[in-house]
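Comment on both lines for my students:
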Amino acid sequence: MFLGTHTPKLDEKGRIFLPAKFRDELAGGLVITRAQDRCLAIYPQETFVEMTKSMVAAPTSVKQVRDFQRMLAASASDEVPDKQGRITIPTQLRGYAGLDSGECVVVGAINRVEVWSPAAWEEYSAAQEDVFAEMNEEVFPGF
């Protein structure tokens, strides 16, 4: 499970150090891809494979299915962290998420890790603060 907020730096080669508490779960390989809200999602390889099983079963005769599959797969990159726990974020994905300053915010999101530009994360989290208290009953009744 991925929890917490971290602020690693992007180096000149587009690499970040994964937070130490995430490294064991991602050591065997991961998939990094675009996510909604202009951030990136990093999944353990096994989680990504399991998640995509339902996408493979979806009918490709439905335009929205094809569109989602393309957008997800076209930007996906499988990576293996190096011995120091670094991963390279491909140029295309850095551009998508606005990671051009060398700064980023890494957020644990239960089954995935998200990578945000600091400005986008600040804007998103500020907007969600007001509705967070009521959100759980609508999305997860009884939680």
About this structure: The first strand starts at residue 5 and ends at 6. Helices lie at 20-26, 45-57, 63-75, 91-97, 118-139. The beta strands are 5-6, 15-17, 30-34, 40-44, 77-79, 86-88, 105-108, 113-116.
